[in-house]
Amino acid sequence: MKQRTSTLDEINFTAETQKEFIDIEDNKQKVDKIDIFINRLGLSNTWGEPEEKIYFAIECKRIRELHDTIQYLGDIEKFTKRAYIDIRLPFEGQLGFIENSSISHKEVVSNINSKLQNNKKITTDLLLENCVLNQNIESTYISKHKRNIHIQESFSIYHLFLDYSTIVTD
User: With a threshold of 0.85, does the pTM exceed it?
Assistant: First the structure.
């Protein structure tokens, strides 16, 4: 029997990778610490670059109380103010690990959206809105923003909030 494989069979997931970026506030090259780095996506022919230079990132935050959404929002801001040296795909990912059973993902999203509406540093075209990525998971969202660099490029962020309240203990 002939075996089929695709270029997606080689997707690479790496934790805590570092890449370089240009900080638009001081125009200096700096290190970008990425929680989950994903490359080797089979896009070399499409983008005309080596597989190692095409990637997307997922940032992770622990949410113990609604106040922790400030750090979550910090990652959204980080996405908007960096000029990436390698090819970063026009979407990002964020994982929110909710560690308190009295907080729902809907409350977290409402809190983040409220902060986004009042944030002058982040240009938001679409607040976090529920989107179905998997029929069994209702805590997935999408938001759309603009980079604060000269091109004002639009990009999306896919958000996944996971209830870790029964897993994480202090």
Answer: no
